[in-house]
Amino acid sequence: MTPAEHITIMTTAIKQAIKVMEDRFGSTETDVAKAIEGLKTSMQAGAPKTAPHS
User: How far apart are CA 44 and CA 2, in angstroms?
Assistant: First the structure.
C-alpha cells in the first residue's frame, strides 16, 4: 500500500468516526462500532509488518 493510499483510508475512517460522534442521537451502537473498527483497520494497514516471535 502506498503512503497516499494509506492516508486516503485513514482520512475516510476519521471522517466516518467524526460523523458518528457528531450525531449522538442518530447513531446506533452499530454505527459507533463500525467507525471504531474502521479506525483500527486504517491504523493497522500502515503498521510495519513484524515477524512472529518464537
Answer: 14
